[in-house]
């Protein structure tokens, strides 16, 4: 399997190369040259498999010769052996039609663990072969940071620098990052900045030859194809439990950076019968506007109770636009360069029509989130976090046929967002026992101004140069 850049001019890489590279050298994102596809019989055969085995089967076409099938299975067994639920991503029924897919049973209580526990092992595997060093630079709006840090802490040949907007993540999210005191972990709180500002600095570093000539810079954000690939698995897992391939299933996905919902698009390209992908945003609704009117234009980021979705630039949307635009890298590069210069872009007719065939969208404001949290608690006895509430709000507003089950991706444990959950329900969710001492742990973090040169200087002074 070869991976190509959405912007057309970077060299094609195999799975190992794309995993270690993260962002392509031309500023684009790697995607498979073609989508592998399962038959109905193959999808039906996924029923009843342990999650780690299903993961290996779904990912094997992408991995190619970079790992033997046996080694891939060893890695998936190790990655998902750390989850607190035997099913890894269990389904919970809310009513006759609505379901929750709980993606928060990993070590940091968020869906990012499903991909990043595996990605950490892949980094260690590939770097161990060469003895090379990798400098991971990432930005987080909350959950990616803690999941990535947990996945690579104390691993050989890897140093991680994680940027987060100072004061714009929850106290649990922050402490899950800053209480990891491993020597290869650096937490950077960027003052007077949003997630988009931090993400822009990360992307700039990938194109900064002063940095890339000295350091092998890699990504753990969903711009890394391997991370997104691992997220495809739980779409298959849940849909098969609900009757696929003989029954269509819809998914409502709380969405910020578009990676999680793009994984659902990939699953559909691989043959999974997806009736609809519902893109659920909060008031930072650039994706809702893009899908409903074709207007992909940024505004000011508004802080909300769902901070992981407080984003105005959704990096993975580029992958969808590339696929829907006929995979014309040159045309997409021009389109994205225009967006980067003006912060505004109109989708082409082909992109809008292609998206409308599978995607719809909905926007949730603060009241919508609170109502969804209350509904889940009062009617189903389930506590959900504000991000999941955006998804449930959108799912319950769907006009799909009653015969189509709608699965809302529950992206974070409610205890990560205790205050808004308590305000909506009167119940303050408790942290699971395995991290119950989080607020007694020592924190370590460096505050830096929202200035690229300051961040680059810090990384350069603490990273290990290329071997």
Provide an overview of this structure.
By secondary structure, the chain is an alpha/beta fold. The protein has a domain of 226 residues: Rossmann fold, CATH 3.40.50.1100. 43% of the residues lie in helices and 15% in strands. It has 19 helices and 15 strands. The strands form 4 sheets. It has a 6-stranded mixed β-sheet with strand order 3-4-14-9-10-13, with helices on both faces. Strands 8-5-6-7-15 form a 5-stranded parallel β-sheet, sandwiched between helices. The chain has a two-stranded antiparallel ribbon with strand order 1-2. Strand 9, helix 11 and strand 10 form a beta-alpha-beta unit. Helix 3 crosses helix 4, helix 3 crosses helix 10 and helix 5 packs across helix 10. It is globular. The model has no long low-confidence stretch (mean pLDDT 95).
